[in-house]
Amino acid sequence: MTIKEAILQSLSDIKGLTNSNEVCKHIIENNYYDFGDAKTPPATVSALLGDFIRNGDSRVKRVKGKSGTYSYYLAKNEPEIGVEILIQTEPETKRKNNHKTYLERDLHQLLSSYLKNDDVYSKTIFHEQSKNSKDNYQKWVHPDMVGINFLNLQTKASQTFLKAVNRADTFKITSYEVKKEINTDYELKKCFFQAVSNSSWANYGYLVAFEISDSLEEEMERLNQSFGIGIIELKPNPYESKILYPSKLKELDFKTIDKLCKINPDFEKFIEQTEKLLTVSEKYFKSTEKELNGFCDDYFKNDSEIEKYCTDKNIPNE
Asked: Mind listing the GO biological process terms from this record (predicted)?
């Protein structure tokens, strides 16, 4: 039996949620694998459990506990474990956390870099600058970020023809709701429907999260199919980020766009810059594009910048 087979067998025996130390103990007690002279078998088991998750092995899943530690289980045992155990909610009175952490908005530059790699211009919408900014309801109105990408036609004739037929087909606008982590069914639904509310006006809408519990996969798929909001898993290396579920295309809601322009200057400026680029003559296109790029969020130029940023902002980079 290999070490990975021993881990899978132990998870099968234990059936419920367990940690790497308990898995290691179970392996040794049942003689599933001989660690020989290895000095740190628990560390080996912990690393391999992490590999199952990072490599997308569908047999093993994990959930994040209240203390920030991970518990593992076999996917086939999920029905026996029970949803009430997998969906672990935070207590009402949260403990003080003395560890340095990052802000939700610190993730925006990671997302903007991921989007820029796909030729999407993105901009943070600061809800603090909106009228009635102290109203808690505003978080259900404003997207965290907006992005626009333009159809890249190669010939001038095709570009002119498309603009003449339907200018709206030359671009697509996307709304993004950004979260640090989503660990429970309750958190998923709250964040998801916030994204639904904030992106009703856009062509596409996405919920973006840095950490998402594996136990929520089935519910994410159901919500995506029912409401059309996509889900992006953001990585500390933004170029490793991935779309878990794609968003469904919608028509722009110009009435809501007008409302957002009235209450938020960032959003209004974004729409103005977009309109300028769509209508500018070829002579001034490059300078107008440069103006839009300067208005949008910063993005990373190389991996060294990413690593330094994650370190400075205390963003986990594993």
From this structure: regulation of DNA-templated transcription
